[in-house]
What we know:
Layout: E1 5-9, H1 14-24, E2 29-34, H2 37-49, E3 53-58, H3 69-76, E4 85-87
Parallel strand pairs: 1-2, 1-4, 2-3
Helix pairs in contact: 1-2
Amino acid sequence: MNQSVAMVTGTSRGIGRATTIRVARDFSAVVVVARSSETLQETASNVQAEGAEPLAVALDLREPADAHPRQRVAVLDSDLSHIDTGAGDRMRLGSR
């Protein structure tokens, strides 16, 4: 099955969480990225309730080691390594 995959950063609360829930209506899978693993699970549940497959990834994108979420997602789940679109204030989809 060819999935449409979105990645949203800052998904733990506020506009980031609302954006993630809205994106989940239009994509078959959503990678949710935030610093807090506790709030990530709640957001992942919201994504699943909207009908999309969630992948929760706890990263602090302010840290150089975590600054390239696309590479981290490819390691975690090769089926979701093709990111079609992204949203968030710290979104970096490139491989640099």
